[in-house]
Automatic annotation (TrEMBL):
Recorded GO CC terms: FACT complex
All copies of domain Histone chaperone RTT106/FACT complex subunit SPT16-like middle, residue ranges: 839-929
Acidic residues: compositionally biased ranges: 965-1026
Organism annotation: Trametes coccinea (strain BRFM310) (Pycnoporus coccineus)
The name this protein goes by in its record: FACT complex subunit
Cell location: Nucleus; Chromosome
């Protein structure tokens, strides 16, 4: 125990809180219980049993001293603090004497067991009995030898003070958390959320999907085992596969981690019925696979608690869906009202009135209180959110917000619903510290999904009967389960696969219709106020320029009345009728020279309105109706002089254009504020990293430092550095070196900065993962070891090195995010690319791997980097989506219509479904088309009048969702005839692609389960003449029945008559 170090500064700070509250108790109702007492007595007996909840006295002592000290008494007097304890504890607590305590501290040290007793206890009793009124925790029962001696001494005392219960005041001391306490609470909440999202929910889905037989108690035991179990050699540590998925849980002190109570799992098969209290237990009954399942789990980190509870409903009724939706909306409303000064009973009354207004029949089923204060104590009854409690909420208090209904009934069976979260009270509103698995799509599981989809979606309805038949051909419907909108595994795999394709396509189609409708409404709302558009001319006006302020400014050379190019004034002086007339270079469009006989003609062309000059077509003029000179022509016999003048004017024009272009490029470059360096301690550093864009000079690794308001990269040379302020950071990425050569921390900026002579939107810090600096060929081990052992060892070392690199860079990126959040007040989170969702494409000139993250689409491995913020995207257009083509293109149109669309070309067609699923999952509207669009004129038209564009249908000209109704007809015709492919591709496809089209076509028809006339003939091995005859017969039949939508098909066999035999041969092979 002698190694224990107490935090003296924290002790004195909290002791001062106690004395300040005590001295001003009459002014604050929260401390009224100690307003008229002479002393405060805190008794502590032997250590409580493991299964007992933390007592308020133990929590108060731990909060004040930093540790629990059993058999220790504290007597708070107005002029001093008296502590009765053993000699060993006094030695530790003596550290507090050096602290800046508001009152002096006196120790009453008791003798050791075998030594003669001291007068410590009688003197402490004398001090205690000298007071008339003493506040203590009257309801707490302590035990132990010291408590027995104390109780005997008090009973024998002649005078006994009047005792007052100080529990309400102690609760107020502990209620508002400081930064140290909040850090522990946030960690506990993060662990609880991670456990729910990455273990409990997926495991529960698996149990329901496979209809596994497992008891509630067994599942609860499995959950508890995630923090480790066993002792000694058989001890098993925490399950890092789960915890590594949570943010900032790599440095957790697992010794200080425990569950507040055994996890509670309840289902319809629970014999004791549903119970929403934390004292409920997981029964030994097997988990039911239908109905309502309740999960409650609470974790404690360094004595501070966090708790959450969720309801999962399998095959919910409409009523159950609406009740759960009511709980979610009620929580959101209450969070906005839980703030500084709010009164507990008013919050409960609001919740009750909200339920009464929305669903009056549920009022009698609503919980009797909606939560309680929480900290070291799991349940602080002093801050109960009940209809009788008048206590006010204060900033930084932590509550366990419990919303639920009990005694509900569905089909004659009782059930309950709950939504429980740990919340932090703020000045204006409260925020949930526990998150995840809360929305309807995450908590509702549906049986008989095929029937639901048949009602809600037209597209897949006709295919559902095939999905209902089992693998053995029986007509009994297959039981399907979905969770979070995902179809889980079926009992028959073939049915599951077919159902998966159909249901996903249907869901994407439905969701895309919603997204397109919302996009259209938002577009109308966004541009309705502004009326017309920007026409691409925003900020583009008549720019005045002046060559000279007066005649005195003209150069001497004009006296000769000859053409003169004044580079300094950026002016060309031309003689016109005996006058030297200056023309600024911006008024000149170009100059041309040609020779005719012995004379040379020099023609100077000027900028004038109405010229079809491409980009310069929309050049503004001060007065477009004025009279303009289109050109001036000069004749001279001196060809050499005109050559020189022509070259001078052209060079000056190029120079000015280049300067304007550079000025335009640098327009958005910002001048950053000064970096405030950390003082008093060394900054957190990441050594041995390279930076991109690279600094001038030799390529050497430097180090990145985290300072008060930004980052600094310091080169080893010392003279060069890069400062990045947190206020200018838009996104922060960490890309691990799994399957990559580099481990990367990438910073994407809000506005570009200058690095060297170039502007940069992105700054990247990286280290090479491959250990190239070690020469392994001369290793001594290789002399004595042969075979694969050495290679295996090297591979293991490489793996470990990569893991260490990932851990080091991830921890540093999280520290950057924490520092940025603390500096700016805006949350900055580390974004990690999802490699499993990646796809290949060409955003610039080379084919690269594009990886989605939570907020962006990125390519970080090589420059030029690509970072596209998903929230900036208006719509995604998938182009060249044709049956048989190997690749397609994606165009991302931004909400800022002045920005040019981003083209990502040559994405493999095999990844089309993956790209569509990803775009749909991040709520980006998408469209499909067979050809590339010319987006330059399209965006120009939109910019001229965006409101008019949306009034005329907006993005509907793209054809809506990829799985929408417009594309259904073309999809159907694709499967009817292979000849249609040839005309669709006649302009774009090459002969090399045509050879593989037929193979792809047969695959597609097999997958869709539809065989066309020509496809079935092909399997019979008909020759070309037979196919030609059948095609002509089919054309004739269609012509007699009416051409309709398939009128174009009649020409196709003739157009593709030559290459078909070759295609058939390839198809058979």
């Amino acid at each position: 125990m002698s190694k224990i170090e107490l935090n003296g500064a924290l002790f004195s700070k909290r002791l001062r809180i106690v004395y300040d509250a005590w001295n001003n108790a009459q002014k604050d109702d929260d401390y009224s219980s100690i307003s008229e007492v002479d002393a405060l007595l805190l008794l502590s007996g032997d250590h409580a049993a493991e299964d007992e909840p933390i007592r308020k006295g133990t929590a108060f002592q731990t909060w004040l001293l930093g540790f629990e000290f059993p058999s220790t008494f504290l007597l708070f007097q107005k002029n001093q603090l008296s502590i009765l304890c053993s000699a060993s504890k006094a030695k530790i607590l003596s550290q507090l004497k050096n602290a800046d305590s508001p009152v002096p501290i006196e120790f009453f040290v008791q003798a050791k067991a075998k030594e003669p007793p001291t007068d410590a206890l009688p003197r402490f009793l004398e001090a205690y009995t000298s007071f008339d009124r003493v506040a203590t925790l009257t309801k707490e029962q302590q035990s132990g030898k010291l408590m027995d001696d104390w109780n005997q001494a008090v009973n024998e005392a002649a005078k006994k003070p009047t005792l007052v219960d100080m529990a309400p005041a102690v609760a107020s001391f502990l209620a508002a958390k400081d930064e140290e306490e909040l850090k522990c609470v946030r960690t506990a909440a993060n662990m609880t959320s991670t456990l729910l999202a990455h273990y409990i929910a997926p495991k529960l889905e698996t149990i329901l999907d496979r209809e596994a037989k497992i008891s509630h108690e067994a599942f609860a035991t499995q959950i508890e085992a995630r923090i480790g179990y066993g002792e000694g050699d058989k001890a098993k540590g925490p399950d890092m596969k789960v915890w590594s998925k949570g943010r900032g849980l790599n440095d957790v002190d697992w010794e200080s981690t425990e569950f507040c109570y055994p996890p509670i799992i309840q289902s319809p098969s629970t014999s004791s019925g549903y119970d929403l209290s934390p004292t409920a237990e997981s029964s030994q009954d097997d988990i039911s696979h239908k109905g309502v399942l309740l999960v409650s789990v609470g974790m404690r980190y360094k004595s501070y608690c966090a708790n959450l509870g969720r309801s999962f409903i399998v095959d919910p009724s409409k009523e159950q869906e609406s009740i759960y939706a009511l709980l979610v909306s009620l929580q959101s409303e209450i969070l906005s009202r839980m703030k500084e000064g709010a009164i507990s009973k008013e919050l409960y009354q609001f919740a009750l009135s909200y339920v009464r207004e929305k669903k009056p029949e549920l009022e009698s089923h609503f919980v009797k209180n909606i939560g309680h204060g929480m900290g070291m104590e799991f349940r602080d009854a002093s801050y109960l959110l009940s209809p009788k409690n008048s206590r006010k909420l204060r900033t930084n208090m932590v509550y366990n917000l419990v919303l639920g209904f009990t005694g509900l009934e569905e089909d004659g069976k009782k059930y309950a619903l709950q939504l429980v979260d740990t919340v932090l009270v703020g000045v204006d509103k409260s925020t949930c510290l526990t998150t995840g698995v809360k929305s309807i799509k995450d908590t509702l599981f549906f049986l008989n999904q095929d029937e639901r989809e048949g009602q809600s979606s037209k597209a897949p309805a006709k295919k559902l009967p095939a999905a209902k038949n089992g693998a053995n051909g029986n007509a009994s419907p297959v039981k399907n389960k979905t969770a979070g909108g995902k179809v889980l595994r079926n009992k028959t795999r073939s049915a599951a696969q077919e159902e998966l394709v159909q249901s996903m396509a249907a869901k994407i189609a439905d969701h895309q219709r919603e997204l397109h409708a919302r996009l259209h409404q938002e577009g109308l709302a966004r541009f309705s106020e502004g009326g017309g558009g920007i026409g691409g001319k925003e900020g583009k006006g008549w720019k005045r320029f002046q060559s000279y302020k007066g005649e005195a400014g003209l150069p001497r050379e004009v006296e000769n009345l000859r053409i003169f190019v004044d580079r300094k004034a950026q002016t060309v002086i031309l003689p016109v009728y005996g006058f030297a007339v200056p023309f600024h270079i911006n008024t000149i469009k170009n100059v041309s020279k040609n020779d005719e006989g012995e004379f040379t003609y020099l023609r100077v062309n000027f900028q004038t309105p109405g010229q079809l000059a491409g980009r310069k077509e929309d050049t503004p003029f001060e007065d477009p109706d004025a009279t303009f000179i289109r050109s001036i022509t000069y004749r001279s016999a001196d060809a050499h002089r005109f050559d020189t003048i022509s070259k001078q004017i052209t060079d000056l024009k190029k120079e000015v254009n280049k300067r304007e272009q550079q000025k335009k490029e640098m327009a958005d470059v910002i001048e950053q504020d000064t970096l405030v360096e950390i003082k008093g301690r060394r900054p957190t550093k990441l050594p041995e990293v390279f930076v991109r864009p690279a600094l001038d000079g030799k390529r050497l690794p430097g180090e990145v430092e985290i300072h008060q308001n930004g980052l600094r990269y310091q080169s080893p040379m010392g003279s060069q550095k890069i400062d990045i302020l947190f206020s200018n950071v838009k996104h922060l990425f960490f890309q691990p070196c799994d399957h990559e050569l580099l481990v990367i921390i990438h910073v994407h900026l809000k506005a570009p900065i200058m690095i060297g002579k170039k502007k940069a939107h992105d700054v990247q810090f990286y280290r090479e993962a491959s250990d190239v600096q070690f020469d392994e060929t001369g290793n001594r081990k290789r002399k004595y070891r042969y075979g694969d052992e050495d290679e295996l060892e090297l591979e293991q070392q490489e793996r470990k090195r990569r893991q260490m690199l990932n851990k080091e860079f991830k921890m540093f990126s999280e520290k950057i995010a924490e520092a940025a959040t603390a500096s700016t007040g805006e949350p900055l989170e580390v974004d990690i690319p999802f490699r499993e969702l990646s796809f290949e494409g060409v955003p610039f000139r080379t084919n690269v791997r594009l990886q989605p993250t939570t907020e962006c689409l990125v390519h970080l491995s090589d420059p030029p980097f690509l970072v596209v913020t998903l929230s900036d995207i208006e719509i995604a257009s998938l182009e060249r989506v044709q049956f048989g083509l190997k690749q397609f293109d994606m165009v991302l149109i931004f909400k800022d219509f002045t920005k040019p669309p981003l083209h990502i070309n040559s994405i493999p067609s095999a990844q089309l479904d993956d790209v569509k699923n990803w775009l749909d999952s991040v709520d980006i509207p998408l469209s499909e088309g067979p050809v590339n669009l010319n987006w330059g004129p399209i965006m120009k038209t939109i910019n001229e009048d965006p409101y008019e564009f949306f009034q005329q249908g907006g993005w509907s000209f793209l054809g809506g969702a990829g799985a929408g109704e417009e594309s259904d007809a073309s999809d159907a015709s694709d499967t009817e005839s292979e000849f249609e492919i040839e005309e669709d591709e006649s302009e774009s496809s090459e002969s090399s692609e045509e050879e593989s089209d037929y193979y792809d076509g047969s695959d597609a028809s097999d997958d869709e389960g539809s065989g066309s006339d020509f496809g079935s003939d092909e399997s019979e091995g008909d020759d070309w003449d037979e196919l030609e005859r059948k095609a002509a017969k089919a054309d004739k039949k269609r012509a007699e029945a009416g051409r309709g939508n398939e009128s174009d098909d009649s020409d196709r066999p003739k157009k593709s008559s030559k290459p078909k035999p070759k295609g058939k041969a390839n198809g058979k092979r």
